[in-house]
Amino acid sequence: MRSPVTGIVTLLALLLVVIVGYMSLFTVQQTEQTIVLQFGRPVDVVTAPGLHFKAPWNSVINIDKRILDLENPSQEAIASDQKRLVVDAFARYRIKDALRFYQSVGSIQAANIQLTTLLNAALRRVLGEVTFINVVRDDREKLMQRIRDQLDREADGYGIQVVDVRIRRADLPEQNSQAVYQRMKTEREREAAEFRAQGGQKAQEIRSKADREATVIEAEAKSQAEQIRGVGDAERNRLFAEAYGKDADFFAFYRSMTAYENGLRANDTRFLLRPDSDFFRFFGNPSGKTATETPAKP
Question: What region holds the Band domain (predicted)?
Fold first, then answer.
């Protein structure tokens, strides 16, 4: 029969085995890489995910191996044309050498501080070599690539690989922006006034040319009209003369009818004439002859 002491010892031994076994196992996630430390000194780096073994007295540190974001606060930089820029940028990086990373910076928080300093320095160096227009419009993609390359070279000593650097915004400071906008507004207004003046001058030239051409056309038309009218009057006089030569009485009758038509117009029929005037001779006699000219009846 076993004594109670033997059972207690056996139980303690089993408990010790469980504790030692638990302390000898560790798990590596797919998004992590693990450093095994022996009394604070790195002895192994495990990158494969799964269950792994270690000495019970060793400890582990898990380090993220995913792509991490580095948010950089807005910084001021001076371009080569002495324009002050407010630059808002960010970076993405990953830890490619966990051991070097642990020995150099130790944690992601410390790495972010160090990378922020390096990123700001790279921004000032690269943007200081180009003009404001290159930064905001022409060469932004190339400049971001240059900044990434410089930051990646400097971060390599910390076991970090810089994946990307992006400039969200690069603009003038607020007070400078207002001055630039006002200058641009003044320039646009000057150009608009110049265009309006040129347009007014052009319109005046076109208007003067049109008036001159209209005057010439009108004068030519009047000249042609006078010529045609003269030809018509000559033809009319010829016809009148020919008609008078053929029938003097009918010509006199026609002339009197024309005079009646022109003289007896609406609202203008007042005459100061003697009743026996020749003007009204056709009123008394359809032949237009006076009483003295009428032959006596036999």
Answer: 23-184
> Residue 245: which of 237, 233, 256 has the closest Cα?
237
pLDDT value of position 91 = 93
**pLDDT for the residue numbered 186:** 86
Instruction: Mark whether 148 and 159 lie in a shared domain.
Output: yes
Cβ contact 122:154 at 8 Å = yes
Q: Nearest-CA neighbor of 23 among 36, 7, 41, 8?
A: 36
In sequence order, the 6+-apart residues with CB closer than 8 A to the CB of 129 are 80
Asked if residue 289 belongs to a domain, the reply is no
Is residue 252 in a domain? no
111 and 203 part of one domain: no
Give the 3-state DSSP-derived string for 176-232, with helices as H, strands as E and coil as C.
HHHHHHHHHHHHHHHHHHHHHHHHHHHHHHHHHHHHHHHHHHHHHHHHHHHHHHHHH
Instruction: Give the global pTM.
Output: 0.54
Domain boundary among 151, 171, 191: 171
Assess whether pLDDT exceeds 80 at residue 180. Answer: no
b or e along 73-89 (b: 16 or more beta carbons within 10 Å of the residue's beta carbon)? eebebebeeebebbbeb
pLDDT at 290 over 70: no
Structure tokens at 54: 């270690």
> For residues 18 and 109, what is the distance between their CA atoms, to the nearest angstrom?
36
With bands split at pLDDT 50, 70 and 90, how would you rate the model's confidence at 160? very high
Is residue 251 in a domain?
no
CATH number, position 72: 3.30.479.30
Specify whether the CB–CB gap between 110 and 101 falls below 8 A.
no
* 218-242: average pLDDT: 85
Strand 41-46's sheet: what is its strand order? Answer: 41-46, 32-38, 59-64
Domain final residue pick, 38, 61, 84: 61
98: domain range? 65-171
